[in-house]
Design goal:
By secondary structure, the chain is of the alpha+beta class. It is built from nine helices and seven strands; from the N terminus they run ββαβααββββαααααα. The protein has two domains: 250 residues, Beta Polymerase, domain 2; 42 residues.
Amino acid sequence: MKAKLLRKHKHRPGRAPGQIEAPEGAVPSVVTMFAYDLDRLEEVQGPSPDKIRELLKNWPLVWVNVSGLADVGLIEEIGKIFEIHSLAMEDILHIPQRAKVDEFENCLFAVFRMATPDGGSYTLEQMSMLFGRNFVLTFQERPGDIFDPVRERIRKGRAKMSKADYLAYALLDAVIDGYFPVMEHYNDKLDALEEGILTKPVQEHVRRAHKIKRELQILRHCIWPLRESVANMKNGENEFVSSDTQVFLRDCQDHVIQVLDILDSYRERVSGLTDLYQSTINMRMNEVIKVLTIITTIFMPLSFLAGIYGMNFDTSSPYNMPELGAPFGYPVLLAVMAATALGMLIYFRRLGWLGNGDNKKR
């Protein structure tokens, strides 16, 4: 499984601020809209700019979501409808941006990274959100998000969701909670990696460990600024976030800190798995060397005996190996050699050098 986590962007030096253009590889834009109050709800798929103006005028709260950033003309028109600053429009299309919160005259602008499922892995995409007194705008790089629970809450009950700042909090909370399945995904990968290292370590495990460590570093690089952004929204003095919503944002900040703590523990775990691989390899190598040493040690006295009786002397002299003429000399020598080898094996086992070491002398 491959995690698509980071993309590089191109920025032309000297370009005037506030210019917008579609990012490379952008997908067609799809617009959805919720307009509602406590009693009524109107959900529109693909509204035209005129329809957006009409709903914005007639409803106390609207949420416009744009998935895909290829249609620059449409995005620019939506920006004009909600009077979005040109610098905010540039940041929406100039991806990826570092997570941040900026305050403008008529809205609060937040940028963060959203983790979305992608074929068994996860993709990080930029999520831009603007909210004012009666509207919330969200811009995603591609269709597919983690906001379905928020949409269901709007359809079923809108008591708390009737304020723009609370809706913005609900969307932000969904983004932050979306990181927890990612953490579980990496926990499973680390468990599998650890099991593989303990059972049969191979060089591939080191490559996988470095790949996971790099992905975790990228995740931390994306999530760490989010901690500061949520703190700014929670503690900042602005007219767009009420004191009631700031209490809920405190919970978001706690979740961000929790995700960062999990990330740090996983990074330490990856380093520990790398050390475990080296230790396991060294231990297996020591076992191999120990077996070879035992075999060599056993054959040393056998080679000594074979070397002595392999020397060529005149056997007619009574001082030159008279036992060579013994009728049972060869079987006796083989028995001595076998007894020597067997005795050394028993001795080594009692020392704990053979087997699991349970018979080691104390």
